[in-house]
Amino acid sequence: MPEEKRLQGRVALVTGAGKRLGRHIALRLAHEGADVAVHYGGSAVEAQEVVQQIEKLGRCSAAFQAQLTDVAAIRNLVSQVVAHFSHLDILINSAANFLQTKFAETPESTWDASLDTNLKAPFFCAQVAAPHLAKSGHGAIVNFADIGGLVGWREFLPHSISKAGIILLTRLLAKELGPAIRVNALAPGTITMPGDPPAWQQDFIEHSALRRSGRPHEITDAILFLLTAEFVTGHTLVIDGGRTL
Predict the structure, then answer these.
(1) Three-state DSSP class for residue 92
(2) What is the pLDDT of residue 200?
(3) Cα 175–177–180 angle (5° rounding)?
(4) For a designed S-S bond to 85, which of 11, 111, 206, 218 qualifies (C-beta 3.0 to 4.6 A apart)?
């Protein structure tokens, strides 16, 4: 008898799913039985590749473009997803940027870009998706913070503030949307991805208890836990190999 998939029959919207961790998340959810709406901003080719890989797994998928700093675009995105799949059970707010800037040199544009993409967009994605998730019977949201929101990085000040905001937003949304929808967050440390500056990984390794960076499957394992742990809400799960110690 084949093993039952943990997310069988559910529909997930993953923002920023064309690249990096978003791509790994979308594919992992499909492996677990979910149909996946692949959101992208400018990565159309990569998003279509993810859709094709998901369809090879026997799941339904489609790509949807939207600039998440525009609330009207978020409303249109969610409407398209629900029209295509007929319902929505899971929202993964993984789209983000990571903008480096020193305090005295930070321009308004960098501040706005960090806060709009990393904090404003997840809030409005949750707001627009909530009525559909509430109908699910097992609605769930997973937001992406990171350890910058806990310890703060001096040369990533707007970014760190945006991620600290995600941690509090997660707690507030859990109160606001429960019991129909559970809301949790992840706060990863450095996750090894092709093309990242070697200095990021080396610094992380030197300061983490486990002396290594993280791997994408360790993030997707955590997401599966949060999506299936029915008595967990309002929690930020730190996955950093002991970096924040």
Answers:
(1) strand
(2) 65
(3) 120
(4) 11
